[in-house]
Amino acid sequence: MPFAARLNNVETSAIRELFKLLGKPGIISFAGGFPDSAMFDVAGIQEAANLALKEEPGGALQYGATEGYEPLRMQLAAFMHTKGVKDLQPNDLIVTTGSQQALDLLGKTLIDPGDKVIVEAPTFLATIQCFRLYGADLVTAPIDANGVQVDKLEALIKQHKPKFVYLIPTFGNPSGATLSKERRLKVLELAARYKTLVVEDDPYGDLYFGEPPPPSLLALSSDVPGSREWIAHCGSMSKVLSPGLRVGWMIAPPELLAKATMCKQFSDAHTSTFAQATAAQYLKAGRMPDTLARVRKVYAERAQAMGDALEKELGDAIEFTRPNGGLFFWAQLTGAGGKVKDAGELAKRAIEKGVAFVPGAPFYAREPDRATLRLSFATVGVDRMVEGVQRIGKSI
Ligand code: PMP
Fold first, then answer.
1. pLDDT tens for each residue of 201-247
2. Are residues 81 and 221 part of one domain?
3. I want to staple 226 with a disulfide (CB 3.0 to 4.6 A). Which of 37, 73, 192, 329 is the partner?
4. End of a domain among 265, 287, 309?
5. Which residues approach ligand 1 with their CB closer than 6 A?
6. What is the pTM of this model?
7. Rg (alpha carbons) of the chain, rounded to whole number
């Protein structure tokens, strides 16, 4: 086939290869990046779907507006108000087919081949692939437990004059890290000062275990003059309600939103009206606060169990910071006492022992740290958690 040259920029991920092995019977998987299907609010979604069909079958089953189903846009604007985004109108957002599509639309509307885009090291793998498909030359900004290091970010912005900066400021995938409030304000100042778009990808912000995280960059942008017009924010129902619904949204300056909408027209015309009407009914029924409280509690227990088990079973062979929310532990192998330091090697050995996790290297757009790994605690109950970590302990 005479494939497009842009495909030369990407390859199928090493992680996909690993996933093929996950079908092995008895395997305990910390590899996935998804929520636990056992926690889906099936009854609530069923009721919402029934109401959608009963009250507005035309809207729920017909073609719809590319920008999104109006009742859902209204509900999402109200949802964002509860998260501190004060002055948001339904017209300020579009509904996307998962937040993944929002990232694709940003790539499509903004990236010319060779353009610099700054991402965190490490960052979400599908974003790396998506931006590369459009020819982006990715530049990486280092992070620590408090998210992206803003002084380094500023230097990179000055040096590379990027098309935009892409951040996952809250409970990052894969890092689990959360950008401190102080750094958030600094990022907003940088956006305004250098007139550089900052994309805030926020699928995990609602999944906190104790205290809520600092407000989103979008919410804080009203405190930093001139920054709001340089922020695009991507949200998603996937991690809190259901990824199968494929309902996400993007809030961006009007000019960018208009171009993204135009590109979405040629792409999927609109996000499933049935899914949108169901999500709208779900939010309207006021179920979200209870659902969030329930999933937060379960994930908090699992995260605690994983942290305890890693400390107990792996000791000084591993280093990590406990996340305050989200779905992931991000860890570094230390190689202490001659133990294995290459996470790819450990992943292979671990699969043999019946446990899977993802090596961290593919999450780096440049210069991978091969001692890193990502462990998701989301889909493994507390009882199996210890067993899974023990199996890693036997592989190391
Ligand atoms: N961004 C990040 C950081 C993610 O981890 C994910 C899902 N793994 C997405 C975006 C895409 O999610 P969705 O398209 O289901 O909203």
1. 999 999 999 999 999 999 999 999 999 999 999 999 999 999 999 99
2. yes
3. 192
4. 287
5. 33, 98-100, 124, 168, 173, 201, 203, 236, 238, 243, 248
6. 0.97
7. 21
